[in-house]
Amino acid sequence: MKIFATGDTHGNFERFRPEYFPEGRELTKEDVVLQLGDFGGVWFGDERDDEALDWLEGLPFTVAFVSGNHENYDALARYPVETWHGGRVQPVRPHVLHLMRGQVFELAGLTFFTMGGAASHDIEDGVLSLDDPSFERKYLTLKRKERARFRIDHLSWWKEELPSAEEYAEARRNLDAHGWAVDYVLTHCAPTGIARQFSRHNAADHLTDFLQEVKDNAQYHYWLFGHYHDNKALDTKHILLWEQIVQIL
């Protein structure tokens, strides 16, 4: 089994084409490309997603993603849950898999802890509700505002971007079962101490604080994350990925 990793795709999967990822030609469905959130392939929640998802299914390898803050969580919730390599996944296609939160997967003899999600920081001007009687007025006002940054609930923003209490509890149970020792940690955002290195907008929240707890208490060899739109090795253990596809095994 060969394992690769890459960062945010936001529904654009050009990087997986053979001309950009020639290694992919030699892979099989047993090989996995791990995608670190803001996958964006399940965005509309209807047939408009089919072309891209079917194209991904046609690739020689398996694509497995953690969730980010830009995912359609209403649509994701409709997919069934199965067990894959010791952890819970949602197959959106047979070989396009959502790696659920708080899981530990065993791939090629290595363990991978997954904890997707992140708080959106492009919503300084608010989150609008379609049920608000003033929605149209507020929407038009923001559209006229230069560089307005806002989202619409259940259309371009979902509160499930951050884990639930149940997901945190499951993460702790699975970490306890492995003695808080794994080979890899896969997340979308970073622990608080790392997140604050990137921008003043990356304030601490419940998820980054939980990840900081993992960083402070778990044993791991590498931590791979996305979200901050850069390709950078912060040190020998913590790797930020965006467009690059790197082989990790």
UniProtKB/TrEMBL annotation:
Q: What's the source species for this entry?
A: Flavonifractor plautii (Fusobacterium plautii)
Which GO molecular function entries does the Swiss-Prot or TrEMBL record give?
A: hydrolase activity
Coiled coil (UniProt feature) = none
- All copies of the Calcineurin-like phosphoesterase domain together span 1-230
Stored Pfam families: Metallophos
Per its record, how is this protein called by name? Metallophosphatase
